[in-house]
Design goal:
about 10% helix, five-stranded mixed beta sheet, single chain, elongated, mainly beta, about 180 residues
């Protein structure tokens, strides 16, 4: 069977895509409530680096990452606000910080891409009530132009839609409160 492309051949069989009506736990259905997470890698200076891979510009993403067990941090963690005076609206917002069964910390955040290139953001996790107990986490992503296709997202990264869709969703959730 010729397709007109050099080196292309046809084989019996096919590609199967998951159906929405498949039961949870099926190997072809991804359960969004059980989103895997990225792993933060410790750097030489003691801070951690999270690489989110390729993302598309002008989109909003949910990023879930895990920081391995850090003995100096306690269980009640929070995130310091961005220290940049020029940023009224940070691109990376932490929504949840949970302790994991393995002793690490699972962080769920929202990231809004605004330009192309290799972008970095930094957050600081602190233990409530413990002065001097902080952990710096650098977040890094390669953001591509919207006209260059759709990147394959890593486990722990989920697209929430365009920034316009995310603003509408965020404002409507505030109106319900």
């Amino acid at each position: 069977m010729a397709t007109g492309r050099k080196g292309s051949t046809s084989k019996a069989g096919g590609v199967r895509f998951p159906d929405d009506d498949e039961p949870p736990g099926s190997p072809t259905r991804k359960d969004e409530s059980n989103l895997c997470s990225l792993i933060a890698i410790q750097e030489k200076d003691g801070s951690y680096l999270v690489k989110a891979g390729f993302l598309k510009s002008h989109q909003c993403y949910e990023i879930v990452f895990t920081v391995p067990d850090v003995p100096t941090l306690g269980k009640e963690l929070s995130c310091l606000p961005s220290s940049s005076p020029s940023r009224r609206f940070p691109n990376l917002r932490v929504h949840r910080i949970n302790s994991t069964l393995e002793g690490g910390v699972k962080v769920t955040c929202e990231y809004r891409t605004h330009q192309e290139g290799v972008l970095q953001e930094e957050i600081t996790l602190v233990t409530r009530g413990k002065k001097g107990s902080t952990l710096k986490v650098r977040f890094q992503a390669k953001v591509i132009d919207p006209h260059h296709g759709t990147p394959m997202l890593l486990d722990g990264v989920r697209c929430l839609g365009s920034q316009r869709d995310a603003r509408t969703r965020h404002s409507s959730s505030r109106e319900r409160i």
